[in-house]
Amino acid sequence: MSKKLILILSSFFLITSCATVSEKANDAYDTVAGAVSKGYNKVKDTVTGGDDD
Length: 53
Hints:
By secondary structure, this protein is mostly helical. The protein has helices spanning 2-16, 18-48. The longest helix has 31 residues, at 18-48. The chain is rod-shaped.
């Protein structure tokens, strides 16, 4: 019985804190995606010789 109670309580806290966590995760994702995009564009420009399409 105590395991079920712990599971229910932890699930409740996970669900209620989910919005805050997902916003932080989105910010982190945006930061990482921006850095990866900049790095990719820099490498692409070096390889292709710039933005001459």
